[in-house]
Amino acid sequence: MWRSDRWIPWTEIDISQQTRGGPGGQHANRSATAIDLRWSPVHSNAFSEAEQQRLIRAISSRIDGEGRIRIVASDERSAARNRQLALKRLSMMVSDALRPRRPRRPTKPTKSSREKRIQQKKNRSQLKKDRRKPGHDDN
């Protein structure tokens, strides 16, 4: 399977067909047109160790107990179109997970935002002072 700059070997991808509901009425109930795709990023030879770790960290919620990603596609009436859809979803998931992220640059608050914060604190302090009983010692 093609992923932007490299191949995931077909031997690593397990594709099976099954019956599923969805568009097509009785045809969908009687024909095995749904695609169940499974791929294990943990055991893949297509990526370096660092890329594997990044991939696993990014898609950890989609990985099952066996360390495999499962994608089910039953949107179309045709098994061939569902297969293409499942492969496209896998490709998008992998490319999104491996896309380099821009590092966050820490920023400082602006002068006006600091002044605004101090003014809000003073207003809040004054409000609380005004709620006190008369004759209370003000330090």
Q: What can you tell me about this protein's structure?
A:
The chain is of the alpha+beta class and 139 residues long. The protein has a domain at 2-98: Double Stranded RNA Binding Domain (2-Layer Sandwich), CATH 3.30.160. It is 40% helix and 15% strand. The chain has helices at 26-30, 49-58, 79-98, 111-131, and strands spanning 2-3, 6-7, 13-18, 34-39, 69-73. The strands form two sheets. It has a three-stranded antiparallel sheet with strand order 3-4-5, with helices on one face. Strands 1-2 form a two-stranded antiparallel ribbon. A hairpin with a 2-residue loop joins strand 1 and strand 2. The radius of gyration is 28 Å and the shape is elongated. The chain starts with a strand and ends in an 8-residue tail after the last helix.
In short:
The protein has 139 residues and is an alpha+beta fold.
Give the strand order of the largest sheet, numbering strands 1, 2, ... along the chain.
3-4-5
Strands, total number: 5
Shape descriptor: elongated
Helix-strand sequence = EEEHEHEHH
pLDDT < 50 stretches? none
Alpha-carbon distance between the termini?
A: 74 Å
Q: Please identify the oligomeric state.
A: single chain
Class from helix and strand fractions: alpha+beta
Report the mean per-residue pLDDT as an integer: 86
CATH topology of the domain at 2-98: Double Stranded RNA Binding Domain
Radius of gyration: 28 Å
As a percent range, the share of strand residues is: 15-25%
Main sheet, how many strands, which sense, barrel? Answer: 3 strands, antiparallel
Number of distinct helices: 4
| Proportion in helices | 40-55%
